[in-house]
Amino acid sequence: MRSFLSCIYLLVLVGSLSSETEFKDSLLQVEGGVRGRKLQMVNWKDWDEQVAISPSALYSSQGEDDVETVEISSTPQLLLMQPSSSYRLLSKKQDHGTDFLIFEAHARKQFLLLSSFLRTEEGLVNSTSPALYIPYIDGIYPGGVLLSNPHPSNISAIVFVRAYDSNSPVPGSCNTEPGVLVKPYLDLSWKDQLIYLSFNQAGQHNMNCIGIQEFTYQVYQYFLPEDDCTQKYFEIGYNGFVDQDDIVNNGNLVTTLTHHKDRISLVNYPRTGRIIAVIVNSKNGSSLYGLAHTYGIELEEDNEVYNGCSHGNFSFLWVSCALGVFVGTFLTVVGHRFFKCSQFLFGFYFGSLVGYILLSLYTEYDETITFVLTGSVGLVSAIVFLAIWWFLGIPVLSVVLPTLLVGFLLAGLLMYIPLCSYPTFFSDSTYWLTFTCMMLAPTVLFIAFTQKASIISCVVIGTFTLALAIDNYTGSNLKFIIGNVLHRATVPGFGQAYSCPPLQKIDLLLGTGILICISLGLVIQLIIERKKPPFPPAPFQQWRWIRTLDRENETTPLLDEESPESPEHLRRAPVVGFIHNQSSTGGNGRRIKGGDGAGTRPRDIFSPTTSPD
């Protein structure tokens, strides 16, 4: 039974975290067709083998007269693009003083092709979020840009254009990479647990790059609803995150970059979409790079079950989480009452965490082998920690591990929410020193109250196990309270990534549920343990006491007026932690011959006692 419960616990822990990393090689579909890069400059021939209809074939079959013209403004507009079609995007009449325009197009999943002209052998921007710079000269307008759908299916694209005057910095004008001269787009990619953002530096008016070291770049992110990758919320997100006022008011400031810094990394929260914006500020004005978005996973078609998001091994994940609900409820309600079982689970949990970290650092096994080896290490650890109580029966020693696990959760929680925005913790030494101190705090505080420490540990860890299982049903990100700590220990560069998570309605509801379950669990267990021995007897010690009693009974007279207790009374289960303060009572619960207590044995607090008649 104990092994069965422990395996359930491992399934929830490892299964919920491993499901987040199944899509590390899926960038080809999600991020625009080039592995590891969301935005790229490519030649026509580079796309001949990657899309159903190459751009060259698309343009040769569609003349200028066949291209539909769409007039757009700074307000996002939904454009339904037909299969294998092109659209010329023209800006509406701009105000006097407009110097340049930034055209943008955004598709949820498929990449789009954006170029300045209909026929070209140069390059083009291909991405789910392409953007192009176009000079604006009133009366000599160059004709806008060309947006193409090379896919044999319809695509819904959000299109708009921004206008800037000559005092505004030109995004992406100071770059040395080949392709278009000005690159106002964001280069966004994801791999495993990290999202990488980079961009080309902005320049002054007329492509002047003097003094650009004084420019500052503010990076904002706007989270879409968790576990919902549908077109509906994608459109709502872009409509509420367009101009600078919307971005500042609705977005979260990630960081401000200076001194030519043009790249950062972010922690990936799969199935939680985010829109990234970069505002470049100069002494005279400011401007926006083209927006970009990512979901951190491979997207599916919209449907009611998946909400457009992939969930990996669906059956395994849901079954393991269903079993996790049982394990969490068991620990929360009756964990201390079944003390040996809880010790086995705590040891299994500890061994699984340590095993996962060591295997990830020093091996390169695939996910299945890592899961099996992690479970094996956890099983060995569980047996060792159970044996410590089985043979020694020392309460202080047995509550050290559970309180350390509670400290691990506490430290992970503090690093997950309130301390995530402090650059101080980019340093590994600072991070792990602070984490260790917070992890040791519960052990130091509760070690003197062994029974209460055991109950609190069972309730907290059981409640979090229950929340971890429910988390996968609701799609929240509270699982990364543990996940970010494990990734920090195993993923190179994870400590340099900005990790502040989204706190949305489902997270707050689940967090409130955790507090309620902890409160109820404490009340229930304290009531159950009321007027009961603080700890059960250690099996080995109990066997040793019974064996000692049997040996002494063989030499005890059949009739002894000073020992009226029956053998059955002497075999009463010992109580660990109680001290029977009678000078005439020996350590084994029998009255010792010899008068007034001078010959009594030293008292042992872990020895069985007898009640006075």
Topology:
Elements: H1 2-18, H2 27-30, E1 40-42, H3 55-60, E2 68-72, E3 77-81, E4 85-91, E5 98-107, E6 112-115, E7 124-127, E8 131-135, E9 145-149, E10 155-165, E11 170-174, E12 187-191, E13 194-198, E14 201-203, E15 216-226, H4 231-239, H5 244-250, E16 252-257, E17 263-267, E18 272-281, E19 286-288, E20 292-294, H6 314-334, H7 339-362, H8 367-391, H9 395-398, H10 400-416, H11 428-446, H12 450-474, H13 480-490, H14 505-528, H15 539-553, H16 567-570
Helix pairs in contact: 1-6, 1-7, 1-8, 1-12, 6-12, 7-8, 10-11, 10-12, 10-13, 12-14
Task: Please explain how this structure is put together.
It is elongated, with a radius of gyration of 33 Å. Strand 6 (112-115) and strand 7 (124-127) form a beta hairpin. It has a six-stranded mixed β-sheet with strand order 1-7-6-9-4-2. Strands 15, 16, 18, 19 and 20 form a five-stranded antiparallel β-sheet that branches. A four-stranded antiparallel β-sheet has the order 3-10-5-8, with no helix packed on it. Residues 1-52 and 578-613 have low confidence and may be disordered. The chain is built from 16 helices and 20 strands. The protein folds into three domains: 2-19 and 311-528, no CATH class; 27-294, Immunoglobulin-like, CATH 2.60.40.10; 542-613, no CATH class. 38% of the residues lie in helices and 19% in strands. It has 613 residues and is α+β, with helices and mostly antiparallel strands. The two termini are 40 Å apart. The protein has helices spanning 2-18, 27-30, 55-60, 231-239, 244-250, 314-334, 339-362, 367-391, 395-398, 400-416, 428-446, 450-474, 480-490, 505-528, 539-553, 567-570; strands spanning 40-42, 68-72, 77-81, 85-91, 98-107, 112-115, 124-127, 131-135, 145-149, 155-165, 170-174, 187-191, 194-198, 201-203, 216-226, 252-257, 263-267, 272-281, 286-288, 292-294. The longest helix has 25 residues, at 367-391.
